[in-house]
From TrEMBL:
Lineage: Bacteria, Bacillati, Bacillota, Bacilli, Bacillales
InterPro entries given in the database record: dUTPase/dCTP_pyrophosphatase, UCP030140
Protein name: Dimeric dUTPase (All-alpha-NTP-PPase superfamily)
Length: 206
């Protein structure tokens, strides 16, 4: 996966946050590490496969949510409780809502990716490319093991803060993405979409 363009967009976002929040004199490395671990936990929570005690351990990889008109993929009618395509002639004026389909697991995954890229910028390390073949070398037998391995590599990278362990963290993280069923194109497109949202949030004082 080519990462250079993502690093460029992440740098732009990071610089905007630092400037607008007045963080120029503050070290953010440890906070970014903690944020990454929190986001990884949220990702695991959407995956749900570790919840052996629960009657609902199926992945939350599909939800329907309301959205703006320009982002609508279909409409939901409150009156008849039906979904209609965008080009369908609606007869329920005032009772329809624009909706879109989302994958919460993919969304949480790219939230993690934002912080991993940001940590690379913290140590002035921007890896231009990570191959799928190299990521496969870090695959475990189960997603639970894969999640734990990512946590382990986060800890090791935090202690060492060098190129070797950063590249290893990237590879094990992309291996997790493969384990969860994501292809590079999906990850890249989801990253662009969430990066745009993050820029908009900064503009509105999020």
């Amino acid at each position: 996966m080519n990462l250079q363009a993502m690093f460029d967009k992440q740098r732009e976002l990071d610089e905007k946050i630092v400037h607008e929040k007045g963080l120029q004199d503050e070290s953010l490395f440890e906070k970014k590490v903690l944020a990454l671990q929190v986001e990884l936990g949220e990702l695991a929570n959407e995956w749900r496969g570790f919840k052996f005690w629960s009657g609902n351990s199926k992945p939350r990889n599909y939800v329907e949510s309301s959205c703006s008109e320009e982002n609508a993929e279909f409409y939901y009618c409150v009156k008849c409780k039906g979904n209609f395509d965008i080009d369908h002639e609606l007869e329920c004026d005032g009772n329809v809502h624009p909706m879109k389909r989302r994958n919460p697991i993919l969304e949480e995954y790219v939230d993690c990716l934002h912080f991993i890229l940001s940590l690379g910028l913290e140590i002035d390390e921007t890896v231009s490319y990570v191959s799928s073949d190299m990521a496969k070398n870090y695959q475990c037998q189960s997603p639970s093991e894969q999640f734990n391995l990512v946590y382990k590599y986060i800890s090791t990278f935090t202690s060492n803060r060098n190129e070797f362990w950063y590249v290893a963290l990237l590879r094990v993280f992309f291996s997790l993405g493969m384990t969860l069923g994501f292809c590079p194109t999906e990850i890249r497109e989801a990253y662009w979409e969430k990066n745009k949202v993050n820029h908009e949030r900064q503009a509105t004082g999020y």
